[in-house]
Design brief:
It is a single chain. Helix content is 33%, strand content 24%. The protein is an alpha/beta fold. The chain has a domain of 57 residues. It is globular and about 40 Å long. 26% of the residues are buried. The model has no long low-confidence stretch (mean pLDDT 88).
């Protein structure tokens, strides 16, 4: 199951994670409005996200290794467009 908020950055996050991790479940949530007026808020929106991703690629990995896989997949967006990313990464069956 893949679910995402609309918007070009959210769509790109979805595309990159689907390509890199072949998730069985992926939810991308735009949290940007919660950060209006805070450091890192981008007036264009789509600057703060939460991703919930379930993938067999996470099997046997600890939390930090799972987050590294997500960060690697999204490296360019994190460097250029996304200010903050909360990650909930699970292997199937967890």
């Amino acid at each position: 199951m893949t679910s995402t908020t609309t918007g070009p950055v959210a769509a790109e996050i979805t595309r990159l994670l689907e390509t890199a991790l072949s998730p069985t479940r992926l939810v991308v949530m735009d949290d940007s409005e919660k950060h209006r007026g805070h450091a890192g808020h981008d007036a264009r929106g789509e600057s703060h996200f939460t991703v919930e991703v379930e993938s067999a690629a996470f099997s046997g990995l600890n939390r930090v290794a799972r987050q590294r896989l997500v960060n690697q997949a999204l490296a360019e967006l994190l460097a250029e467009r996304v200010h903050a990313l909360a990650i909930k990464a699970r292997a199937p069956g967890e």
